Amino acid sequence: RDRDRDRDRDRDRDRERHRGDRDRGDRDRGERDRGDGPPPAPAALLEAPEVYGIYKGRVASVMEYGCFVELMGFKGKHEGLVHVSSIAPGQVRSASEVVKKKDEVWVKVLSLTGTRMALSMRDVDQRTGEDLTPHLSQRAKAEHDRLGAAGASNPTREDAGISGIKRAVLDADDGAAPRRQRKRLTSPERWEARQLIASGVLDVRDYPDFDEEHGVLGGAEEAEEAVEIERNESEPLFLRGQTKMSVAMSPIKIVRNPDGSMQRAAMTASALAKERRELQEQQQRSLMDSIPRDLNRPWEDPMPEPGERHIAQELRGLGYTADPMPEWKQESFKKGVAFGFPATKSTMAEQRASLPIAALKGELIQAIHDNQVLVVIGETGSGKTTQIPQYILDHEIAEGRGSQCSIICTQPRRIAAISVSERVASERGEGAPGTPGSTVGYQVRLEAARTADTRLLFCTTGVLLRMLCAGDAPVRASVVVVDEVHERDVQTDLLLVLLKLLMPRCPHLRVVLMSATMSIELFANYFGGCPTIGVEGRTFPVEHHYLEEILEATGHQVAAGSPCALQAAQGQVASAQVSFTGAGGRQVSQTVQWEEEAPAAVSESWREGDFSAFPEHVQQSIKRLDEARINYDLIEDLILWIDQNHESKGAVLVFLPGMSEIQTLYDALSGRRDFARDGKLWVLPLHSSLSSQEQSQVFRHAPPGVRKVVLTTNIAETSLTVDDVEFVVDTGRVKETAYDKRKRMTTLQETWVAGQNMRQRCGRAGRVREGHAFLLYTKHRALRLLKPHRVPEIQRLPLEEVVLQLKACAALRDHFDRGAGVASLLAAAVEPPTPGAVESAVQNLIELGALRDEASEALTPLGHHLAGLPVDARLGKMILFGAIFRVLDPVLCIAASLSYKSPLVQPFGLREQARAAHERFTRGHRSDHLAVWDAYTEWRRVGDEEGPRAASRWCERFYVSGQTMKMLSEMMRNFRDILVSAGFVTRGPRHDPDARRRAIAEANRHSDNVGLVRAVLCAGLYPNVVHLEFPSPGAQPRLVEKTGEVLIHPSSSNHRRTAFESEWLVYHDKVKTSRVFIRDCSTVPLPAVLLFALHVEIQHAKHQVVIDRWLTIRANPRTAVLLKTLRTQLNALLEGKMRQQQLRRRARLARSGRGDGAGVDVQEATPDVEDAENREDSIIANVATLLAEPEPNKTQTE
After folding, report:
1. Is the C-alpha dihedral spanning 1036, 1037, 1043, 1049 positive or negative?
2. Rounded to two decimals, what is the model's pTM?
3. How far apart are CA 294 and CA 290, in angstroms?
């Protein structure tokens, strides 16, 4: 026995020595594999490839499932397969998307089995040949050496058990008996084995933990080994078409046979269905025509008092019942993606003639001719958006005025303006909008498709506003059609103010206001009692189900103490003074206290409504329900009930307040066994922050047997149509933006939807078929407690941009010359803002330097330039300063991203991976703004050097939106053109490329000076700065600003960071949700704050500097005086620069005859250019040098 133990010890030492030698060899090979450059080319041809070696190869052939690569540098031919999942990171549907025949690539050998060889391209950097996964290669090599080549690939050899696990370990140098490998048992298995042994059925030697030498071993568990698993995100071939990743892919290629029997049967069925539909529509029209119609009658008011009047919408379904839809039709009905215009086999003329608005064509044209303003309320599907502008154009052409007319149609969103123009052009049988000969065009921000032939222009509301403000010439448009006027955004209300002021001066102008849900009386009275016309819609019936009915149908109960139940109020403490006579006749006085039970909390609907007709559990649930909270459990139960009780697999559209609620419900539905087990639900989010690719998923149809559930916000109310929606679930909650003028803070408040929003949401279920709307609030709230209309944006948002636009509007020059102010102009709005909001906007513009004072409200030179930039005033100031300080491109990129959106996306479900990838752009600084600029420069470099396909792959790898990058590039070009026309930037002659390059280089002379770029950010965004206070080293800093303490938003790259290179942060936006957060922040140096602060006071005796009368810092008096001197010189330079460019611009306009040049001194407009430029260069160089120096190590704050 002692001999055996000694032999075992020697054998273990030999194994450890052998393992150490092998590990050292593996480390040497791994270091060679991890070299910075590609592996050195061998001097002679190699014999055969090695496993996990990296070699150069050439693509021999490309298949759908991968590509075959022939290795280069070998004596014989060695060819292997690179599977489609191993070609590139992310999902690759086909190998031809990435590689093509004869491409030279780097590959890594994964395995060798006989003549077969498995290769990988995704594990190797295709530019340098570097191994991207060396740790996996080392671990696999060690395992391969331990098991041996045969053992690793032959799980059926004699000494292998199931899955290749060795059954016994036998020493080669002695005849010792093999030790049986222990099997890990579960607790029930151990109990069963012990019972069998105790009963004598099982011999103790058969016990899995029995050892010949030691008997039954203890229950100690073996040490667990950490195993690293690499997840393969690619879709396996055998599951193609069965998962969410490929739900839109069809494994069967459909070929249409026009002469086949199925096609003939389909055509016959379509003709019969059309005939039956036309008969039903004729019957319905006859019923409607029998009702007296008077366009001026008050009973057609779309917002009547309860029980007072009726409208056509209530009469539309009178006596009408739809035929039951057969099962085959339910499965195939409307399977194409419609994007708001469902496909049909009717001709275009038949489609237009079948619209409800076609019957009112004559009345509409006559009403527009007789009145300067007309209000049209057309229900969903009536055809008002596409038909009314065409009716006007066709009438003008018929009257011989087609060449002189100009019709402008506004839409609140750019996507709506473009899509409607394309639809109208298609209906008229013309080319695409903006093509020669087409009478239809569109113009949105940074994009226009219009020619001299354009007579019908679709544009966004902001574009028309800028047209009106560009000059003081009379409006040349014949008709202005304002669509979706009910949305009441700031630009729409401002447009109505301008149109009302211009109409007396332009008697030829006609204005048409259109909407599906709006207060007719409000807008009709605003325009002096103008006439109104109502148009019925063409939607399918929608059955409404309220909360009490949903609770009864699903059996859901709201228990006391649940998150959705009202919290019991704390009882009041009552007390009384008690006096009594004690022993010996002593008077004793004592205070007795007790807690009075608080009245039970009940919901508002329970106090005012009547629910006696419903079961007890429904009454109790409504009584204790906190109606302001979203009941996610009820939504889950409701979706399950819909899936079990409705055979049709129509999609479910769930309206939620915001992104956090979408994420919560998405996680709950995805993890529920009822749905996850059979894959019965396909849950999709829809939010404005998601990428275009993620948003487009909602238009795809679910495969058979799967129900699509779309989680969205109010973006789906009017902007788009998901054509397979049959069920709508409305939580009744929405997040609205409000502005606190005192704290200068945007607040995102969750509130109840308005009645018009409720109707829009319910209507989503009846666009293409009969539907159901499930309202998660009581009928009493829906009919009695909801406000009829939402509060307009002009009463909720900051008005700085509105005031700037009005002050710069040439059409309002007479109004301001008479001494009237902005407040009096905005008081004439449909629903004017409060005077305090206007005063706050004027004060903010004075601080920004855009207005001179409150008395005159005159624009400064800076204000004139800011009004010409299509961005927020602060971003406009940032752009101008970027041009002056020669840091143009970084500032243009940052301003474009803040004005549009960030290209750094975080896809749904991949937030953490995206944040890790974005660390690449914030590694060298603490700035969300500079991260966008770094990403943009790298995207441009990859695109210029390797082509657009490489740039697209780069965007996919680092979670960057290529579409947003292209939009930012276009916006930068647009901003640069505006600066060139204003004289802040030179471009160089078009025929001289070298001069253009020199001009670009001059405009970006200091772009590499990061400190100067940060200072320009501070100049534009000030006073949006916060100061960092560190309670202790390494602790989370406190962020303090003038109005209080704030936090960094979780979406920022600075969230939860404790180390900053400066104690100052500048931010773009501040929002209040559960707490006050700042978004898009960057550190800025202290000198930048001192240079661009509104007020700086130097206290020489105390060695202190007071910034904006709220923050005191320690500073050397001499340094502070030098900074103040430089600040004075800089302010004089900036003011002179702004004034000089304004004078030059006015002089140019005067010479060209396009503007008023009165009062412009030619010599004043053209001073000594050389002296001015030398002085400017000197001051800017001093500022750049100051900000490029190392920042102070520490500032003491009091």
Report:
1. negative
2. 0.59
3. 12
